């Protein structure tokens, strides 16, 4: 019975592993304060207008300094998440001056800005802080006056840029006179208007190039319609994007089917308005915000949980970085996800990716895409067939149907032929399925958590099972008992690990099966299988008891024995038939879910 307990324990263990993975990955996404890109302008790359009237201030331990001296600098205010502190010359235009020494390295870290080590200080995590203390070390060649400056981020979309701090001076120099126009010009945002009615699909394939999911849906009539259209005129393209989202909607042009090096546009919901933000992706990390200047005629609309945004951009941008020329063909990604305070989170499901590269300024087409990549779908489907159906039936037959199907079939006992056929099928399917993610990825996937590791263990066990079966000792060999035990325990281990691997794999973005449905269905399958094994186990036990009693009484021994046996076999066959029906039902549910991705 130990085997059953451990199989039942698998969902609990896997759920635990899930939660652990989720925690680890969400912590890893938090801003780390490594903001060296913002050193010069001291503007966070958040794409929002900075606030005025800073609530934070900087104070210093003394107002005069000599080269080599240490001055204590304090930044304080209401709770804030991030900051950047620098010392500059009186005109604020040059590079940061001097270096800092940390007092509390838990909350602050040194940055190397403009090649000067430790010339700026930033946060280490987005935790709330009220006060930061550091030392500033005056360099030997310092200008006469030094001004401290800080950028403070209260939330992702609320921040103050270059908050002026006190000015400190070398002794015996002329007093500091306020230079004119010190503060860097604030970025201003182009006007954005509100749409009065929904986008519609009436011109799709006629004037508009449309990408839709579900295929050919209408954003005007269906709330669940994810819609992206491009309408070109002589020099520019009008873009419309629509879909259900409470966080953000985005699309990107890509040279390949992987994320990275892409030209992306994000519409983010923030305080009941929608911000339209061009960005670019470098690798699989958070998109980097770009200037909004290339976009014109920006407009948006929010109704019934559907977010819509539109803008116009030129087909080509000579000399503008990160905006692709739209006279060429690209793969197009469509993604959505959650956002808080204007900071977007990783997409909740695998983005919709077009099957091919398309020229959105060319002939207006009507296309769809897939959330899952074909090879990964086949991988999932084959693994489900192998580890849900063929292996389970094969094991039941070896364990409970030996006496039932003893008659030879092509030279061997029938049960053995069926068992061998099912297990060979399992191994073959596993092997083919195992190769597919490697072909798709072109190597190991470091972003898939424990799934690929467990998958490798299952693959190795499957090969070992085949080898051990091939070198099975003859029936009366003393090593036969040893073989039976090894064969059983390796097989059981492989099945348990396979179930755990399937639990983890179902949640990976490459094959993102829907919501809690997949977990419950998988638990349902495990319960169905374990239940069947228990029923057959109890039945076998009772049958053997009956045999013993008959044996003791020695009454009509032969006749009763066969009658009881025949009845028992009929029961077993009925259980197997019902089990196979249930098993195929679960398999069909998973296969059709994969097919619909
Ligand atoms: C700041 O600007 C003034 C006027 O442009 C100039 O005279 C002065 O030398 C500058 N100071 C530094 C430290 O560059
Ligand atoms: C569809 O939208 C276009 C603008 O993109 C508009 O001119 C047209 O009237 C709309 N059609 C319908 C049927 O609402
Ligand atoms: C788009 O192109 C037109 C003319 O080709 C130009 O005048 C305009 O400034 C461009 N717009 C942007 C945002 O670059
Ligand atoms: C797209 O336009 C740019 C700028 O006009 C040009 O350099 C490039 O060759 C064009 N590409 C294609 C594929 O037509
Ligand atoms: C895309 O379409 C435009 C407009 O029809 C055309 O000028 C351009 O050459 C096309 N690009 C490709 C790569 O086919």
TrEMBL record:
Cofactor(s), by name: heme b
GO CC, any one term: membrane
Membrane-topology annotation of the record: Multi-pass membrane protein
Molecular function terms from GO: oxidoreductase activity, acting on metal ions
Stretches assigned to the Cytochrome b561 domain: 341-539
Residue ranges constituting the Reelin domain according to the UniProt record: 20-185
Protein's GO biological process: intracellular iron ion homeostasis
Protein name listed in UniProt: Ferric-chelate reductase 1
Organism, as annotated: Tursiops truncatus (Atlantic bottle-nosed dolphin)
